Amino acid sequence: MEKRVQRLRRLMGERQVEALFLSHPVSRRYLTGFTGSAGWVVVTESDQVLISDFRYRSQVREQAPDFRFIEHKGKPFHDVKEVLNAAGVGSVAFEETHLTFAEYRKLKTALHPIELEPMAGMVEKLREVKEKEELEVIRDAAQIADKAFAEIVKELRPGVKERDIALRLEVLMREQGAVSSSFDTIVASGPRSAMPHGVASDRVMEKGDLVTLDFGALYQGYCSDITRTVMLGQPSDRQREIYEIVLEAQKRTVAAIKRGITGKEADRVARDYISQHGYGDAFGHSTGHGLGMEVHERPNLSLRGETPLEPGMVVTVEPGIYLPEVGGVRIEDDVVVTDQGHEVLTKSPKELMIID
Ligand code: GLY
Ligand code: MN
Ligand code: MN
């Protein structure tokens, strides 16, 4: 595949951007390979520069050999200006969603009279379609989450605390090489399962609880994101009913994932099915999102998702039903769009698991 920086230059050409200043750590890592926590990237037509500091001198050379390294001495934005002056550009685009106002003001002062142009989503656009190597890492991250789920179900029972389960999930994933969870683990039991984002609390689980576990691994820079909902004790009729509706909505949406379907068409599959069964009001979030270096990235499977899916994109499919009196159910898989259709990366069982 064409080098990422070359693909970026093509996009810069299309958008008439003569120089680009990147401040988002994920953009920096994606483009350069540098994993350090501080630095800025400048890309012009003929130059590509990574500005960082003494701490990263040898790491940059090792991880980002394709980039010219500037070791700044406390005034990185002055180095940015030198790079831009040498390129003879009159303006530079910056990532408007990844620069604080204070940084913007400093940058503006340092670069004067070079114009600063706000820009969003350029590197994010490149990141939508994953390379083969990226897919392999995401596949591994998904497998780490699957193995953690297989273990954790053995530890779920009435009397255990949500936070203890979240901690065990963290340990189970880190034992397999994850750096951390890919987001704050959700363990939401009983009435709390009706909160779509019920981060683990001190609640002690009880018989009769639906328990939603939503977690993922951050592994070699990439995220997985899985949700399973299990039942402690026998389900009520209503609990079983909403489980089966969510499961069918989820399976139908996964089945629909293929090249060309737009985010909103995929979202419709889940939303229409749930609405037809009378629970449209109880499904208030989007059906899924892109997944990669960030746990939420492009493209979205939502009512506003215009992007047609392409091979190499990875999305989650995660419909849910949330009823304050009964509890909630969400089922989430990570799915990659392939030439032939799709491949589901998370493989944990989805049929209702009753832990009695
Ligand atoms: N818990 C984040 C998500 O599933 O999107
Ligand atoms: Mn999730
Ligand atoms: Mn998700």
From TrEMBL:
Pfam families: Creatinase_N, Peptidase_M24. GO terms for molecular function: aminopeptidase activity; metal ion binding; metalloexopeptidase activity. Keywords: Aminopeptidase, Hydrolase, Metal-binding, Protease. Residues 4-129 form the Creatinase N-terminal domain. Residues 137-339 form the Peptidase M24 domain. Its cofactor is Mn(2+). InterPro entries: Creatin/AminoP/Spt16_N, Creatinase/aminopeptidase-like, Creatinase_N, Pept_M24, Pept_M24_MAP, Peptidase_M24B, Peptidase_M24B_aminopep-P_CS. Gene3D superfamilies: Creatinase/methionine aminopeptidase superfamily (3.90.230.10), Creatinase/prolidase N-terminal domain (3.40.350.10). It comes from the Bacteria. Belongs to the peptidase M24B family. PANTHER family: AMINOPEPTIDASE, AMINOPEPTIDASE YPDF. This is Xaa-Pro aminopeptidase.
